[in-house]
Structures are given as C-alpha cells and as structure tokens.
Amino acid sequence: MIDRPVALVTGSSRGIGRGIAVGLAAAGHAVVVNYYRSPEAAQEVVEQIAANGGRAIALQGDVGSAEERTALIEETEAEFGRLDVLVNNAGITSQGRRDLLEATEESWDVVFATNLKGPFFLAQQAANRMIASIGAGRIPGGLIVNISSISAYAVTTNRADYCMAKAAMQMMTQLLAVRLAEHRIRVYEVCPGVIASDMTAPVKEKYDKLIAEGLSPIRRWGTPEDVARAVVALTGDSFPFTTGDRINVDGGFHIRRL
Length: 258
Ligand SMILES: NC(=O)c1ccc[n+]([C@@H]2O[C@H](COP(=O)([O-])OP(=O)(O)OC[C@H]3O[C@@H](n4cnc5c(N)ncnc54)[C@H](OP(=O)(O)O)[C@@H]3O)[C@@H](O)[C@H]2O)c1
Fold this sequence. Notes:
Elements: E1 6-9, H1 15-26, E2 30-35, H2 39-51, E3 55-60, H3 66-80, E4 85-88, H4 105-135, E5 142-147, H5 160-180, E6 185-192, H6 204-212, H7 224-235, E7 246-249
Parallel strand pairs: 1-2, 1-4, 2-3, 4-5, 5-6, 6-7
Bound molecules: NADP nicotinamide-adenine-dinucleotide phosphate.
C-alpha cells in the first residue's frame, strides 16, 4: 500500500478536473486521472504531475457505466492499495443546449447518467471501500467532493437537464454527509461559477460580456486552479467539524443583489 493519500478525480484529463488533479498531486496525493475520450490529454496530466515529483496514473472509464465505475475503483485499489479522496468532477452540459420546449430524452439520459447517477453510485462504492479501510486502520478518514455548479440554482432554460442534475447534487451531498459522518468520511459540494474550460469555450463571448457588466462581484473568469485550491483546502485538517457544506467558488455570483 502506498504511503500517501490517494485521490480519484473523475474527468481529470481536461479543465477543472485537470486543475484539481494537479493541485492534489502538488499537495502530496497520489492521483488517479480518470478520463473518458481523451487518452493523450490524460497522459499529459500524468506526465505533468510526474515532472513535478508527484505520482499519478491514468485510468479510462465512463462514469455513466456501472461496470466501468467498478473497474475504476478496483484498478485504483490494485495500483495503490487505498482510496482516501473521491472527487466527482466529470460532467457534461446539455446535449445541443436546446430550449426546454424542444429538450430531448437522449440528452436527459446521458446528462443524468454522467452528472448524477454516476457520481452517486461511484460515491457509494468509494464509501464502502473507505469504510473498510478506515475500520482496518489503513486510512485515517475519507473525503468525497462533488463538483456541482451555479446551475444548481440559476436557471438556464436551454440546459434544463443539466440544471436539474446539478440541483440534485446538493441533496446527494447532504445524504452522503449524514450517512457517512459516523465512519469519519466528510462530504462536500464545491459549486463553481463561470470557469474557463472547454465546456464554456463555445459561450465565451456571451460570458465575457456578462462578466464585464458585473455578473459576479469579482469581475473575472474563474480558473480550474481556483476550484482546485478549494478542493485541496478540504483535504487538509482545517475543517474537522464540518460536513455537507456547499462551498461557492464563483466570485460572489451567488449573492442576491438589488
Ligand atoms: N466550466 C464551468 O464554467 C463549470 C461551472 C460549474 C460547474 N462545472 C462543472 O465542473 C465539471 C468539469 O467541467 P469542465 O468545465 O472542466 O468540463 P470540460 O472542460 O468539458 O471537461 C470535462 C471532463 O470530464 C470528462 N468526462 C466527460 N464525460 C465523462 C464520462 N462519462 N466519464 C468520465 N469522464 C468524463 C472529460 O474527459 P475526456 O475528455 O477524457 O472525455 C473531461 O476530462 C463538470 O461537472 C461541470 O459541470 C463547470
């Protein structure tokens, strides 16, 4: 068993997940860089971590598939012998970004499988492993971080499925937090605002304008590193008597203003 904490970050070949993987590695975690369709990008992340003196492996797997979730957990255990941190980051936007009057069941199914069902059942499997390892004294405790979105409460009518799946992540976080507290596993929701990544690249001009007009009190795009810093902070020992919280990383977007 490896002598440092192990973090599995879903969807960490690109964007926010990549930032989180690099941040956790710099903070001393061995990292599993999960990817779906971008093997080269995942390999780059592994190499970047290794170049900085860290330890990482890349594992392919669709979080929407039960078999592939199981394989992810088993391959993590086989490689490192432990799992201390799960970051449910992998996510996709509404397919085609159609107005809700034209929204399709195909988009609903893939968005909910990737953004909600996958994270819930991956958390279930990870938690069961963590409970066994904590009980055996192999790891001191566990941490699960769910990456949701300001779309959990801010309506976008051409991404209804995405908004609803992200809204459900808050309840999922609270359910897991309550059930897992007795096992020394803390659970949080990290709620990013507008973050520069491939996901937001197609709507860059729209957000450039909104940010310039004051969309968030802190008038800039967020970065994957902004989100990574919050996740890394949760892995430390600064929040021992907290669980189930939503941590906003949004430049203050969530504050209602008059
Ligand atoms: N960007 C924002 O402004 C923003 C704001 C709030 C919340 N978020 C949330 O933050 C998370 C990351 O977003 P992002 O902007 O970094 O997105 P992104 O740039 O599009 O990257 C998505 C990542 O998820 C992976 N992925 C997609 N489907 C997957 C699947 N079925 N199984 C495993 N991995 C999968 C991709 O892997 P491959 O490339 O290997 O396929 C990629 O690494 C998402 O949950 C998103 O909803 C983003």
